[in-house]
Design goal:
CATH class of the largest domain: Alpha Beta
Helix content: 25-40%
CATH architecture of the largest domain: 3-Layer(aba) Sandwich
Largest sheet: 7 strands, mixed
Strand content: 15-25%
Distance between the termini: 58 Å
Shape: elongated
Number of strands: 17
Structural class: alpha/beta
Radius of gyration: 22 Å
Number of helices: 10
Strand order of the largest sheet: 5-4-3-8-9-16-17
Order of helices and strands: EEEHEEEEHEHEHEHEHEEEHEHEEHH
Amino acid sequence: MTVKGKNKDIGGYIAPERIKRIGILTGGGDCPGLNAVIRGVVRAATLERGWEVYGILDGFDGLLRKNAFRKLESKDVRGLQVRGGTILGTSNRGNPLNYPVMVRGKTVYRDVTNDIVRQIKRLKLDVLVTVGGDGTMKITQAIYEKGVPVVGVPKTIDNDLGVTDVTFGFNSAVACSTDALDKLHTTAESHHRVLVVEVMGRDCGWIALEAGVAGGADVILIPEIPFDLEKVSAHIKRRKQTGSRFSIVIVAEGAFAKGGKKIYEKEPQPGGIPGRLGGIGRWVANEISKRTNIESRVVVLGHLQRGGSPTTFDRILATRFGVEAVNLIADGKFGQMVCLKGRQIKSALIKSAVKKLKHVDPNGQVVQTAEALGISFGRSD
């Protein structure tokens, strides 16, 4: 499968002219645009290069099972760019770097990436294309360092992956959240209520920020700016005093009050398993009601942001990413991830992409724009 490169930073290497068979998997949470990437990779690889493409089922889990793959040809991806989800399935439950296994009746956590490398060899895959976010790319980097030629494609609705200006899936999630805000304005105004909308994003506030600005939210709460509930409540009271008898609050799931903690539906588990954020929206709604005496309701968008057809922007970006991933393989640029810089598709080292999350700048231009419009972030300073 691989010929060990002389440069230790290269990891696994295979001459581009020797490539015959590549694999592709989608890891982590699903999002609109995954199928468009698959289509881009399959068509560019089979029609332009004459390579065989095999889809690995259910993310990295598929490389820990037998026969969890399918051959993909051009006819299999016809019209796929309009479909949400992923035809290959995905999984964000098990991390191969810290995978739960049963030993003498007890669950222990082990690094099973060697098992993944062996399966890749058994499948005779020359290169593996992985489509995913921060967690997927960390796993990809680990197997690359064990000699597997890899190329990454950045995906996450959270838009928190480094080195790329935008990840596909983000625009679709923002569009979904904005549409919800548009609809909720009329019911909030009719009943003179405060409506709190909780959106995804984990530890970054990109979805809340951009949807909040686009959808005319009155308050935006994000993890990067710990909020003061007194400031939020005072803002809502001022609106009522000036004739606006309703307010829209959008809150990222990872937001938290100054001096407080993030709220989890499911706490982080042993073995480095991350928790499931959720509940901040209901808490904020209850606290606002107490402080303002205005009836408040909460809407949790949840997986609506992950579902449905991708926006035009995400269809194009995902397709370009897929085609460029094939170009990177043909150029022998392994260990790299495609990315968007301005309007150009570029590439960067995967290890650079996973160094740190891309957070919202609390004093950045978009935040300043929101504050110039009179939107409150509940700043305590």
